[in-house]
Design brief:
It is a multi-pass membrane protein. It is found in: Membrane. This is Tetraspannin. Keywords: Membrane, Transmembrane, Transmembrane helix. The chain is mostly helical. It has a single domain, classed as Tetraspanin (Cd81 Antigen, Extracellular Domain, Chain: A), CATH 1.10.1450. The protein is 66% helix and 5% strand. The protein has helices spanning 3-32, 38-50, 61-64, 90-127, and strands at residues 75-77, 83-85. A two-stranded antiparallel ribbon has the order 1-2.
Amino acid sequence: MSSAIKLTVGCLFFITAQYPIELRSHLQNNFNHYLDNPRSVAAQTFLEDEHDCCGIVNYSDYAYLNISEEPDSCYRNISDVARVVKRDGCAKNMENHYMVRMNDIGLICLLVGSFEVSASFFFDEMNQ
């Protein structure tokens, strides 16, 4: 098996197998420290604003922390006086967001691998 194919298979395996598990674990760990760490609050607020989400699995995660109402970052304003809670959890939204980017990286790995194999055949033909 050529090094290009090994590299491509390795890239694709790493991208698809590891990332969602690690992402969810890091998000959950940060969320578990929500009440005792101001940096966790800031990080969660940023995620909820940036990825249009609330909590890790969904908005009800805040009830497990004994917080009676979701923070403002969990709401989407639909007018000056009305707002709606964001129902999607941040883990799902971030996994979707970053898996698109990881698929792009996988495609680049495939292209590089294909180029290397093509170049190898071309230069082998030239040297004969």
